[in-house]
Structure formats: structure tokens, C-alpha cells
């Protein structure tokens, strides 16, 4: 069913309903002014979305932050939670809950004859939704985003920005500037609006480059109107840092490989992260998959290294890279370097149940199409082997469970 947006202002304690004709508006006394160009919208209120929203509000109380809800039941849960986000940090001596309030919210509602689309421009948007929901969700607010908007994608997997450019913002002249973020902190939820900050880790931010069009947006510098980037960089608990387009591409690909080697294998073998590679045949399978994935990510890096982009707070310079600085020659992108990263993360998260295994067990859709599926898609474009990663995608999508004894039968060259 088509969706639209209904505006709901939250912040005060006394909720008031105003009926104007047949349209219903829900307001609180906190809504005394229209949001300015500094308003930061958060789309996707999962673990990371809640953590970022909480951190922004605690560090910048004066900055308007609007949460975009995708289902009506979140509104009652929001009310039950006291219209705020609770965060417990395990880093301190005491696990004391920390509350952030004063948010506005907008609720995604089914389209009806009495509803209307908000036309309020969005200058700053953080997308923390599931990858497979992104294009549809952005389509709902496409009319509120333009070439002066900044969209930051904080997501697992890759390929979302290309998909969004193709299906939502097909006109490069009116397309927002894209940024991507890679988060290495540990966050989990204990209730719809309560999270635990279980482990510190930085968020790396960088401009997104299109293989065909260069930097997506006006340029890849941190412009004065990139309020969302400026605010994140000055939010202490996020430990955010900015990098270049190539820097964020490297970080994305490194995380992609880790996710592609751990998440789907835990799903098809039904095991925790730390159990995955304790069995030699499963370790050998990971290395087999890397023999496909390694050349693919190195080829992607070379495609994006035709220019090197230096990002500063005011300027952007573009120069040809010296031959000796081929990013694919980085030791961390050799098959052995990538395998070491995978094993390190598996060891550090040994007791964890991967998000993909959790999704499979709960009967939810997974993000496999944007992880191993992305490797398969890029392998096809590049003419590189990808058959075994395609098998992984098929097994996860089919919710197939296999045994160690099945590896040779299922995977080519095992």
C-alpha cells in the first residue's frame, strides 16, 4: 500500500490533538517554530539510528532532531517510553541510564483521501534503515530533498547509493550530496527506545563517489551547509572523523568483506561468531570465498583510484595518483590481510549472534543482497569469478542449514 507522511511534533508532556476539517494533526507544546535548515532527520530507528539521535541531542540540545517512524505502533511505543531515548553505557563505572528528549517525530501513514504529503524541505538526513528498505523510504520524501540537501548513509552492505541514484534521484542536477559512514561501536536494544552502548568505536565519515559521475553532489568537501556532518564531528560520544572519498571506500570494502565472511556463514551453519572458524573446513570455506571476493574488491578500488580526492573543511583538490599509491596494493587488501581482519572481528565478537542469523531465525528479510549479493553483482560487471558467493546468497535466501560434510558438495573448489 502506498505510504505518506503525517507530521507529529513531540517534546512537551501534554499531547494535544487539533482537528482541521477531516485532517488530524498531533502536536505538543514544544512545536513553537518550524524546523530550520539545521534540522537533522533520522530515517531508520534501529540500534544505530537511536544511538546517533541520542548522541546528537545530548551534545547539541539546541539542534532540532526529527525521527521518521515507519509504522504506527512506534508512536504508542514512543509515548510509553516517555517520548525520549534511553542509553546505558557500559564504559563507565556505573550503568546509569542517560535520557535524551526534545525530539520531533514524523509518522509514515497509509495514504488516505484526507492525508497530504509534507513539503517541508529536508536539508540534513541520516539514513540508518535496512538497506533493502532505503529506496522505498526515500521515495516517500524525495520531493523534500534536492541538490542542497546532504544525505548520510549509515548502513551495512554496499550498493545502496547506486540504487538510490537510479531509482529515486535519477537526475544528477537535483540529486542530494551523498556521504557514507562506517561505525565500529557496539550498540544493542533492550526495548524500542532503550539501547545499551556496549563498546566504544569511531564513526568514519566520507563523501560518496560514483564510478560514472565522480563525487555525488556539488563536491566532496565539508561545506558550510553540511550541518549534519559538522554536528556529528562535534558529538563526543560518536568519536566521528572525516576522511576522503577513497578513505571511506576502503573502510566500506573492509567492513563488507568482514560481513560477507561472517554473517552469512553463521546463518547457514547456525552458530555464533566465535564458533564459526574453530572448525578447519569452515575456515577453509572462508578462504575459498575470499579467493573470489579479494580480486573483486581490489578491482573496485582501482576503479575508484583514477583520481585521489583530498577533503578539507573548505576546499577539494583532485590530482592523479602516483603509480606507487595503487590503493589495491595496500597489505590490508591482500587475501591474507582480509582474512586476518575477518578472524580478528570473529574473535572480538565471539559471543555474538550475528544480525543475519538473528534475522533468519526470526523469519525476517536479510541484507544478503547488499553484502555477498553486492560482491556477486560487481563480479559479474568486472568479469571476475563469483560463483561461490552466489551460492552463499542462495543458501541464505533459502534459509538453508548445512553441515560441514556438505561443504564440498555445495561449493565449487572446496
Fold and architecture overview:
This protein is α/β, with parallel strands linked by helices and 414 residues long. It has two domains: 3-242, NAD(P)-binding Rossmann-like Domain (Rossmann fold), CATH 3.40.50.720; 248-410, N-(1-d-carboxylethyl)-l-norvaline Dehydrogenase, domain 2 (Orthogonal Bundle). It is 35% helix and 22% strand. The protein has 13 helices and 19 strands. It has helices at 47-59, 73-80, 134-140, 160-167, 227-233, 245-269, 273-276, 280-303, 335-348, 355-361, 372-382, 387-397, 407-410; strands at 3-8, 15-20, 23-28, 40-43, 65-69, 84-89, 97-101, 104-110, 124-127, 150-154, 177-183, 186-191, 194-199, 203-207, 209-210, 214-215, 240-242, 308-311, 316-319. The protein has a nine-stranded mixed beta sheet, sandwiched between helices. Strands 7-6-13-12 form a four-stranded mixed beta sheet, with helices on one face. Helix 6 runs antiparallel to helix 8, helix 6 (245-269) crosses helix 9 (335-348) and helix 11 (372-382) runs antiparallel to helix 12. The longest helix has 25 residues, at 245-269.
Please name the defining characteristics of this protein.
414 residues, alpha/beta, Rossmann fold, N-(1-d-carboxylethyl)-l-norvaline Dehydrogenase, domain 2, 4-stranded mixed β-sheet, 13 helices, 19 strands, 35% helix, oxidoreductase
In short:
With 414 residues, the chain is an alpha/beta fold. The chain has 13 helices and 19 strands.
SSE inventory with pairings:
Elements: E1 3-8, E2 15-20, E3 23-28, E4 40-43, H1 47-59, E5 65-69, H2 73-80, E6 84-89, E7 97-101, E8 104-110, E9 124-127, H3 134-140, E10 150-154, H4 160-167, E11 177-183, E12 186-191, E13 194-199, E14 203-207, E15 209-210, E16 214-215, H5 227-233, E17 240-242, H6 245-269, H7 273-276, H8 280-303, E18 308-311, E19 316-319, H9 335-348, H10 355-361, H11 372-382, H12 387-397, H13 407-410
Parallel strand pairs: 4-5, 4-9, 5-8, 6-13, 9-10, 10-11, 14-17
Antiparallel strand pairs: 1-8, 2-3, 6-7, 11-14, 12-13, 15-16, 18-19
Helix pairs in contact: 3-4, 6-8, 6-9, 6-10, 6-12, 8-11, 11-12
